[in-house]
């Protein structure tokens, strides 16, 4: 049944490997809870699920994680109902917490340039790290999209790349001239590295010629942030936020940004419109005669 559930999530629901892994980890917690209380985790009652969720929420304070735990419970029972293992979904009345909308951390152009300037191009990984930063900031890639980016899907002559995003959805993303230039330097450097067979078609590899991990990209960005003297909490996703924000500030259409980021729903992209309010306030401060006096 668990193997069948894995296939349901991966193939029928078309969830990403990260989402599948998270849902299965949450299901392990549900199974452990059921064992502890001598319950059948296939035929749990609503009250039992409510008690399980309450216990989880005592230690998990993040609203996003709470919502994901509930989504995992719902997915498990939707699967059981879909496969006729149960006749009624006991999780149907479980309510997800309303997620607060927090504005994303965004870097200024000066801060992005400071991080770029902090890269030691004389080091073995210098050109690779600059190409990584240009791809994250210049094309708005997610870190998972970057580490899985294939050389065979980068078409520099046509100035675009084929990106596989969440749910295995593909989109075409332009490559900026600056990113093309630094990626070219990295390709020259990469040709001198000993690349392992499993990484031969990957755009970015670690110093041992193996696939680059998400954790390593986080480390690269964090170290550059520290070297540039930036005190904000910065991650690879901050560069994606900055990419979208700077496009919007310079007149790009919101639907174009939605397409570039691979957002399924325009409402997800609309969080970047908060900058319009900041720009309006700045215009009042600078231009209104009452403020000038």
Could you please describe the fold and organization of this structure?
This protein is mainly alpha-helical and 293 residues long. The chain has 14 helices and three strands. The chain has helices at 2-12, 17-36, 46-59, 63-82, 109-117, 126-139, 143-147, 177-190, 214-227, 236-249, 254-261, 266-269, 274-287, 289-292; strands at residues 154-155, 160-164, 170-174. Strand 1 (154-155) and strand 2 (160-164) form a beta hairpin. Helix 2 (17-36) crosses helix 4 (63-82), helix 6 (126-139) runs antiparallel to helix 8 and helix 6 (126-139) crosses helix 10. The mean pLDDT is 87.
Produce a short descriptive summary.
With 293 residues, this protein is mainly α. Helices cover 56% and strands 4% of the residues.
Give a topology summary.
Layout: H1 2-12, H2 17-36, H3 46-59, H4 63-82, H5 109-117, H6 126-139, H7 143-147, E1 154-155, E2 160-164, E3 170-174, H8 177-190, H9 214-227, H10 236-249, H11 254-261, H12 266-269, H13 274-287, H14 289-292
Antiparallel strand pairs: 1-2, 2-3
Helix pairs in contact: 2-4, 3-4, 6-8, 6-10
